[in-house]
Specification:
Elements lengths: L1 H14 L50 E4 L2 E4 L1 E3 L5 E3 L3 E4 L3 H12 L4 E5 L12 E3 H9 L2 H5 L4 E2 L6 E6 L4 E6 L11 E3 L2 H14 L3 E5 L1 E8 L4 E7 L2 E10 L1 E4 L6 H5 L4 E17 L9 E5 L5 E5 L5 E6 L6 H4 L2 H8 L9 E16 L3 E2 L2 E3 L5 E2 L7 H20 L9 H25 L4 H15 L35 E4 L2 E4 H4 L4 E6 L9 H9 L2 E6 L6 E2 L3 H9 L3 E4 L5 E5 L4 H14 L11
Parallel strand pairs: 5-6, 5-16, 6-12, 9-18, 16-23, 27-28
Antiparallel strand pairs: 1-2, 3-4, 7-11, 8-11, 9-10, 13-14, 14-15, 17-20, 17-21, 18-19, 19-20, 21-24, 22-23, 25-26, 25-29, 27-30, 30-31
Helix pairs in contact: 2-5, 2-9, 3-9
The chain binds flavin-adenine dinucleotide.
Amino acid sequence: MAARAQRRRGRTDLDRNRLVRRRSGAHRVGLAHQAPRLPSSGLERQPAGARTPQRAQPRHECEGAARVRGGRRHRLSDCSVGEEVVVKVDFLIVGAGPVGLLIAVLLGRDGWRVTVVERWPTRYPMPRACTIDHEALRILQSAGVMAEHSELFEPSRGERGGYQIRNGEGELLRAINWNRAAESGWANTNGFYQPDLEAVLESMASALPTVDVRRGWSATAVAQDVGTVTLTVARTGNEAHEETLVGSWLIGSDGANSAVRDLVGIDSVDSGFEADWLVVDYEPLDDREWQAFVTQYCDPEQPATAVNSGPGRRRFEFMRRADVTVDDLGRAETAWQLMAPWNVTPDNARLERHAVYTFRGRWANEWRRGRVLLAGDAAHLMPPFLGQGLCSGFRDASSLAWRLSLIESGSAGPALLDSYGSERSTHVREIIEAAIEIGRLVCELDPHKAAERDVALRSERNDPLLTPVEPPQPRLGEPSLTRSGDAWAGRLSVQARVEADGVTGLFDDVQGGRWQLVTLEADPSAAVPPDLARWFRSIGGTISSVSADGLLRDADGAYRTWFENHGCSVVLSRPDFYIYGTGLAADVVPLLESLRGALTSSLVPAQEGALS
Ligand SMILES: Cc1cc2nc3c(=O)[nH]c(=O)nc-3n(C[C@H](O)[C@H](O)[C@H](O)COP(=O)(O)OP(=O)(O)OC[C@H]3O[C@@H](n4cnc5c(N)ncnc54)[C@H](O)[C@@H]3O)c2cc1C
């Protein structure tokens, strides 16, 4: 695939993807748009003050003209004397938040030329997300993050599974097992510090020779034709200074107030759920052990959340009551007053930040307009009661990156993107609804309704048949790029430890493969016709057999258990770790043929989404 991609990139070098850099006052392409002045999340009512535009970073006109990778020269841009600069770009990404940066790393590692445009000159220094799940960590593993930076993540621990819902009297109403090992090979839930993760992602993106992260530029206009997207950007703080970028695809990962979403005219649907919450991050100065990793205090007097927010950090969140103004809630004194009942005081804690956010549930009603795609908060917002906003954004990144890579390398057609929105929107809406459901439990201010809620939760708690596992793990929505009629298709696949040649580790590190065909015990390779095996390898597929004592040893017996629980002995997983299809030994060839058919049929033209 790499050689073909390189050939194709070489061809397109000659005939498309031009970046024309103009001086201020030059022509504007497409719809003009003033970038919003709000903080990126759009939720923070009281920003920490670090978002004001800072010094403009000087940038040499010809920076990044050519860089060397592994001995090959990739021309990122060609400088000419005078006003025009022609630049080669495969992908434009608007927004260098965690989702945009992850997409840049995933595409850049494949050698694609990526330009990321970010309106702020420096990174947002404050955390929003503070917990991350196993699936998101496997995605970060695929981007190369976990090999060097697994210490950023602290697995959930604490009593009763780590996630507790308690009422105003402190009675435990529901306990959820977040402490378990999970099917992606990583701890089910982990605390982390978002600015540290963003710093790692940005340094990885910037270190890639084909990725250019351009800070201090705001997207202001988008136009597209059948083959390209044209993006106008303006210097933050000097809007009269504009440039025009051209790429094959544009990804809008520009947060809740997405300019890209507005520019291409995609509407959002609002769930109607909305509540203001004070978010307080602090560094404990004592070494107190907290009973739970996350506790939701469903106290109608003062709903609150306490959470382990990564190594050496804690967070409290407090809902705004009707008799408190946003301004009052946002004061430091209020934060200390609200934390006092837990004996968190200036003597034993250092306040890192306090800010009021509006928690709401919302989703874009389209994820693609022609060559423009949405990802992350630009596509969906949810209240953070399940810690799933960023995790969902990382799922978008993974789902998008493999599709775009296959399309640009010529192994699939743009029609493959039709299933991006249908798969992701159904999946994320189920999670948004679950987060809102927990939110309604926690945010209840009416004491009578709160008492009724407690009765209902007590009876659920005492029902041995009910063991809540949250957040939910929905199936991908339809239409999806999966084998139809398969009960497990579209569900999350498994990663566990294997051993080969004396090396024991997680499957993706030891055996690897983007598309992974894994069988239990019997090696299926001989049954696969050579042309099919060659094609599968060309898209990054691997065929492996795990067994109790073979060449690829099922180190903990987890694969055997998984196959037994799923009633199959073969699984074909996609690069975003969702199951394409399952079966028995005889299904190996039909599964691969079915995948080849699906990707090949996407090459048939005339199925592109409508242009804006
Ligand atoms: C209080 C709180 C707690 C949370 N807790 C969790 C949690 O525990 N777990 C979890 O998974 N999620 C959590 N989330 C959600 C998570 O923080 C977000 O989903 C995630 O940060 C979104 O990342 P993003 O990259 O999509 O958007 P952002 O991080 O918002 O990045 C968007 C970027 O685009 C840039 N941008 C915007 N407009 C333009 C423009 N016109 N031109 C150029 N650049 C532009 C912005 O400056 C910004 O840098 C929480 C959110 C909040 C508010």
